[in-house]
Amino acid sequence: MAKKQPNRDQRKPRADAQRNRERILEVAKEAFARHGANASLDDIAKQVGVGPGTLYRHFPTREDLLREVYRAELEKLAAAEQKLSQTMTPTEALRAWLLLFVEAIAAKELIAPALNTLLGDPKKVFEASYTKMYEAIRALVKRGVESGEIRGDLDPMDLLRALVGVSHVALGPDWQSSAKRLVDILMVGSRPLR
User: Fold this and answer.
1) How far from chain centre, in Å, is Cα 17?
2) What are the residue boundaries of the structural domains of the chain, listed by start?
3) Cβ(37)–Cβ(118) under 8 Å?
4) Could you say which of 18, 20, 67, 163 has the lowest number of CB atoms within 10 Å?
5) What is the dotted CATH code of the domain comprising 70-189?
6) CA nearest 190: which of 151, 144, 158, 136?
């Protein structure tokens, strides 16, 4: 009796195919940030060192590639919570995650014009990623509260709102410096009242 072949969609991608996919996403993020929605997909493939067919096999359309670049950034941010929680104290982990959040805002700001051109409102497309991101910050704050390092009345969304706010208010190329200073201010304000 012949062995049943797994469904093509259920198979795990080969390691080299996964590396190509991840490299395409990194190069595409930079290209969309520099050149907007019309960045050359052929140039992206060339810079990665793969043929255009490989790029299109992973991402059949420009919209698919752009959508996945944004989703991957949010997924990395959400996944960082567990790694940070395993290797740092609750307040160190929260601070490190907030600094990564500032970087994610910067990446989003860079590719936002391309996102809006091709997708309209990306929030509707990425609700699952936003949920994972919220769950990550909620877990970090909860861990800090349980350890006694973070005040019990802290709303995790207040931290995110403050950082998103500074990215929209601060005009100029150094808003990230301001946001990183704000992380430290927020961390001081997150400590329990004595």
Assistant:
1) 21
2) 14-60, 70-189
3) yes
4) 18
5) 1.10.357.10
6) 151
